[in-house]
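Quick question: what would this complex look like in 3D?
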Amino acid sequence: MYPERPAGIAYGGDYNPEQWPREVLEEDVALMREAGVNLVSLGLFSWALLEPAQGRFEFGWLDEIIDRLHAGGVAVDLATPTAAPPAWFVARHPDVLPVTREGVRIGFGGRQSACSSAPAFREATARLVRALGEHYRGHPAVVMWHVHNEYGAPLGECYCEHSVAAWRAWLRRTYRELSALNDAWGTTFWGQTYTDWSEIDAPRANHTAVNPAQRLDYARFSDGQHREHYALQRDILRELTPGIPVTTNFAGTVNCKSTDLWQWARELDVIANDHYLQAERPDNHIDLAMSADLARSVAGGEPWMLMEHSAGAVNWQPRNLAKRPGEMRRNSLAHVARGSDSVLFFQFRASRFGAEKFHSGMVPHAGTDSEQWREVVRLGADLRRLAGVRGGRVRAEVAVVWDWESYWALELDWRPSVDLTFRERVDAFYEALWREHVTVDFVHPSSDISGYRVVVAPSSYLLTEASAKNLHRYVEAGGHLLVSYFSGIVDEHDTIHPGAHPGALRELLGLSIEEFHPLREHETVTLTGGEVARVWSERVRPAGAVTVRGFAGGPDAGHPAVTRHDLGAGTAWYLATALVTGLRELLAQVLDHAGVSRPHGLPDSLELVRRGGHVFLINHGDRPVTVEGVSGVSVFDGVRHDGPVTVPAGAVTVIAEAAAEPVAEPAAGPVAEPVAETPQP
Ligand code: GAL
């Protein structure tokens, strides 16, 4: 359920007006109109002002702001401010303060300072959200609800007494019998057998590795506690304001490890994602594309919302680089190209005080006579011209497997090598596909993948039997699967599948592994095609698979490094190492074999994505790029192209492929019409 208003692409950001005197607020609404801002997320951290003492609600100041925004044609995504519990509440209930794995109880003075399991926090949340919902129900400015802020970041797991009590209850519900838990966790190892539920603690910091199955369950439990806290609020809001969508903003689909977004997606009316560039990374736009593709995938292919990104620098990285001219525009339009129907920022006006005063805003400290503000105004105009993209779908022929449970399990203690990480492998495959101009979806390994020509599974360490069967069926029915090393090793309890590795995939891949041979730090090995690899080598024994490349050096010289297994109507490929060179070529071979079409001859600085009858051409390089074979009308300047389109360095061109007529120049000013009357909530 996507919010009906604003029409077109939503534009704006977090708005924290309580930091400013009234004159600034008036100026802000005028500036929003100038830039075409049509949606703001309001009141995200305002609990202390909305409920200054227990049960005493003060909505007057917020009423005034909402009415003023509404009169200016700006719709409101109204937040529940539970990510910032007030000082009086924490002083009264110090037991809500979260405890880290190391046993440190955090203090007041930051934010996210309450544990999602703490009963006092849940009660106060319910009281506050009900009051908010009752007060603003029916207010025409409020088009959606924004619950909390970035669950799981930075507080993924809490180890307080309330968490432990809830954990024991969760374990009882999950396992029913203590013997089932003992079996699942393999507690006979290291003499950990439990004889009573009350003996079970959270997997606190320890001088040695803690039972990995216990840790994996604690990750599942902790994520579920945040979802319960979210659902508590959502249910109240749905009861009071049916028809108004409820969401929460994810802390960057790719960057927040603790939230299993396949589970979260079921609870939200619309998926909302935040993304911040890793400023110093040269190709950080590839990470952006991955985040956007994952957000769209989590949304089940439906349009989603970019709830936060930055207009310029952030303030929390080691070196906070300002965006270069045109970079904000490229970033914003890349999110739209990949399915977002909004471009929203943290935050509208840069703060003068507090922890984030060096973070950029749409209105910078330098004011409106600045390049940044001019870019903000220009982007608003661009987005008005892109209104026709709203609701458009992105189609992908290739999928990459992403499973948060496997991610958690893979990165627990004591694996065969510290260089085995999930993100590094996914990033490597995603980047190679991005450079091949292939748009990908992400999928859970148990989901319906039958529609994809190619599925890539980078280090899918934890794979249930059911998921493995799903992959098997996919290949037999004609799918093409590429699996990388350290996949299909354990089940849902981090127990190794019986027999030789990879237990869950032996038959599908037509091979087994006799021994792992992790490489030393900086050690490389060569393959028979001259490719260079690092991190991993292993002794592969084919049992049906044919060798495509062998190891030419290292511990497994003379044995297979890349294999192919024809099974039913499809093919299962296996890659037993981390290619430094040749990964793109291997992927190209798999894509060609599967008949995946993609543009050829384009430099990989050019991002090309199709969405709903539009082709987005984003030039990240410093030279113009000519793209052949695109015809239609350029959305930003109305020029018709039949054949080659030249995209200047750093620029973005969007072609409406289906449009017959040039797109009319829209009127200046915001999309939403100002509203004359100010309704009373
Ligand atoms: C986000 C957060 C915002 C703001 C932003 C700064 O993670 O939701 O409130 O802190 O980071 O980049």
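Answer marked as accepted. The CA atoms of residues 407 and 422 lie 6 Å apart.
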